[in-house]
Write a structure and sequence with these properties.
Layout: E1 4-9, H1 12-24, E2 29-32, E3 44-48, H2 54-64, H3 76-98
Helix pairs in contact: 1-2
């Protein structure tokens, strides 16, 4: 049996609710981290002890309103536009220096 990280949050109330719901579903779990004094946020990690429970645990977290992670990716169009603008600037500088 190996433990697995299933969720990270800075919302202590959500973490408490998640641990309660997972425990009620008989999924062995624990958390690390806590909210910092003065309202400062700190990452709270929620783990399950049996990675075989991950599908059930994820379903429970989603039902509680867990955010679904998305990758921050720069679109290809943006990259191509940036390369084009950069090349245009270099060409203008070369033309200006050639005069």
């Amino acid at each position: 049996m190996t433990s697995a990280l299933i969720y990270e949050t800075d919302d202590s109330d959500f973490a408490d609710s998640a641990i309660d719901a997972l425990t009620q579903a008989r999924i062995q779990c624990y958390r690390t981290g806590r909210a910092l004094p003065g309202g400062s946020s700190h990452t709270i990690c929620i783990y399950i002890q049996n990675d075989g429970d991950s599908q059930r645990a994820n379903k429970i977290l989603l039902e509680l309103g867990a955010a679904v992670g998305t990758q921050n990716r720069v679109s290809q169009k943006f990259i191509l536009l940036a390369v084009f603008i950069g090349a245009l600037i270099v060409a203008l500088v070369i033309v200006k220096l050639a005069k």
